[in-house]
Amino acid sequence: MARWDASSIPSLDGKVALVTGANSGIGLETAVLLGRAGARVLMACRNLSKAEQAARGVPGSQVVQLDLASLSSVAAAAAQVEAATDRLDVLVNNAGLMAVDRGRTEDGFETHFGVNHLGHFALTARLAPLLLTTAGSRVVNVSSVGHRLGSVDFDDLMFDKRRYDRWRPYFQSKLANLLFTFELDRRLRRAGAPVSALAAHPGGTRTDLGFEGRGATNVVMRSVAPAFLQPASLGALPSVRAATDPSARGGDFYGPQFVFFGYPVKEKPSRRARDESDARRLWEVSEELTGARFELAPRRP
Q1: Alpha-carbon distance 73 to 184, whole Å?
Q2: Which residues have CB under 8 Å from 20's CB, separation 6+?
Q3: How far is CA 253 from the centre of its chain?
Q4: Model pTM score
């Protein structure tokens, strides 16, 4: 089987892509690859100064301010995108946090769940009308191999009752990314929408994820782990393949060939990630928590 690498990306001339968390790591590499292929790239980031500096290396890019820990910021970012473009071919929900200290978002959600899942859920809902006007558009949610260790506790999503250990909330949020992806794709299909939802994970990739925090594992992530991880340029390829490969289909999930490293291949998510009952329940809970509602039926001319 021929490997899928940067040379496999088709021409993206005339297309518009939005990548969250695009100022560093996998997000920046994703933006660079999409930009080099001809796409106009909207870099949605929390830190504007870092994003503007990073954007200098991304052809055809524009910065959008987005703080996924704030639903009001999500709404403002979506409005900025709608004012900047009349189409959106690719939405890569890449930004995220890993193993951070216990905290809450502006809206009171546990930080991992609020940023990694609910923020992207709300952003996707707000950008759905723009995606629906662009035939063949794709939503790509970036999960983690850690989703296999996750479970969604609907009775304690915010870890109010359970002991907080920084990894279980992260694994829960990454499982939520996949449940959301597959439920979104099912709903898009039922609506006859010209949009598909896919997912990817970067394996073990060298970024600054996991560096924040005061836990022992954070120390290991900062000092030891980088020596054993693949570069972000390789870790970005599963996301880019999901976003651009003409043979990719809604519901596909891409990751490194050797789980933690290698070029991207299609893989099978965990059994929990394929639980349709949990996916429907998570969708309903996410709508209730964020107030976001999806309009998935294509608009008639």
Answers
A1: 23
A2: 27, 44, 45, 66, 68, 92, 93, 94, 95, 120, 123
A3: 12
A4: 0.92
Residue type (1 letter), 252: D
Across the chain, where does the E strand assignment appear? 16-20, 40-45, 61-65, 90-93, 137-142, 195-200, 253-256, 264-266
Higher-confidence position of 228 and 275: 275
Distance in angstroms (rounded) separating the CA atoms of residues 121 and 127: 10
pLDDT in tens, 20-35: 999 999 999 999 999 9
Predicted confidence (pLDDT) per residue in 166-210, tens digit: 899 999 999 999 999 999 999 999 999 999 999 999 998 766 664
Q: Are 20 and 27 in contact (CB under 8 A)?
A: yes
User: 3-state class of 232 per DSSP?
Assistant: helix
Using DSSP's 3-state secondary structure scheme, residue 179 falls into helix
Residue 17: strand, helix, or coil: strand
Nearest to 47 by CA among 62, 29, 66, 31: 66
CA distance 199 to 213: 27
Could you tell me the two tokens for 90? 């690719």
Residues 153, 90: Cα–Cα separation, whole Å: 31
Largest alpha-carbon pair distance within the chain?
57
CA-CA distance, 97 to 172, in Å (whole number)? 12
Cβ 15 vs Cβ 90: under 8 Å: yes
Which positions are annotated as active-site residues? 170
Token readout for 102 is 């216990």
